[in-house]
Design a protein that fits this description.
- The chain is an alpha/beta fold.
- It has one domain: Rossmann fold.
- The chain has a 7-stranded mixed beta sheet with strand order 3-2-1-4-5-7-6, sandwiched between helices.
- Strand 6 and strand 7 form a beta hairpin.
- It is globular and about 50 Å long.
- Bound molecules: S-adenosylmethionine.
- The site of S-adenosylmethionine (SAM) has 17 residues, from helix 1.
């Protein structure tokens, strides 16, 4: 099952995943997560790296940060590593998020898990593991798509955001997006496969279900909001400070 799943993500890594950044709501999601999660220094854990956009943006603006990214897809990790090659403080680890993480307790000052939870057969165990490796008081940003998400809403939000840009930026973004159209079509095909298998293989949660899962893992919910044009829930969490 795990080998099967990682093969799917390997295929998505070479099949257009990187091009999602052309979609303005997806870029806005990454930037929102970044704004909430990234400390000025310390050690950030990215659980489920994908092709490494978040790490790239984080290290580009916060050079004193250390980032460790975990993924079980070798192809995703290769892409992320290539993207971040000018940052020696970026580390990439091939590991399954549903198994114990290869880090001691209390290692990280912040953590991010963006659009990953739904894909995990044991999401609760993965969240418990992230909580274990966080330092007490550290911040954890967790976001995932809602069960009743609608891709058409995201497309409309993309067009509205595009129209709101200054004309020169709008033009250059449109040209770049047209150039990326084949990759975006491949990405659309992969995300249709996710939708087709949503009931059997993936587990999309409501915000309330996610809150319950996080509390059971010993996390405190600081803030709840929506993101990705209202199609994701997003939680700002922290680990209970046992010594307080
Ligand atoms: C939809 S992508 C999200 C990537 C990135 N966080 C983003 O926001 O674009 C899901 C990622 O989770 C990874 N993943 C899925 N199941 C995993 C598992 N059991 N262990 C480690 N990584 C996993 C996939 O390989 C993929 O890179």
């Amino acid at each position: 099952m795990t080998a099967d799943a990682s093969r799917f993500w390997d295929g998505y890594a070479t099949g257009g995943y990187d091009a999602l950044m052309h979609l303005l709501p997806y870029e806005a999601l990454q930037r929102r997560v970044l704004a909430l999660a990234v400390p000025q220094e310390g050690h950030l854990l990215v659980a489920g790296t994908g092709t490494g956009w978040l790490e790239y943006l984080a290290l580009d603006r916060t050079p004193r940060l250390q980032v460790t990214s975990v993924d079980f897809s070798a192809r995703m990790l290769e892409r992320a590593q290539r993207k971040c090659r000018r940052f020696p403080q970026a580390h990439f680890v091939h590991a399954d998020l549903c198994a114990p993480l290869p880090f001691p307790a209390d290692t990280f000052d912040a953590a991010v898990m963006c659009n990953v939870l739904y894909a995990l057969p044991d999401g609760a165990a993965a969240v418990r593991e992230v909580a274990r490796v966080l330092r007490p008081g550290a911040r954890f940003i967790l976001t995932d798509p809602l069960p009743d998400r609608d891709a058409a809403v995201v497309r409309r939000a993309h067009l509205a955001a595009l129209r709101a840009l200054p004309w020169a930026t709008r033009l250059s973004r449109t040209v770049r997006m047209l150039a990326a159209a084949p990759a975006l079509l491949r990405a659309q095909h992969a995300s249709r496969r996710i939708e087709a298998q949503a009931a059997a293989r993936y587990h999309f949660r409501t915000g309330a279900e996610a809150v319950a899962l996080c509390r059971a893992a010993g996390l405190i919910v600081c803030e709840e909001e929506t993101a990705y044009a209202g199609q994701n829930w997003l939680l700002t969490l922290t680990r209970l400070n046992e010594t307080a």
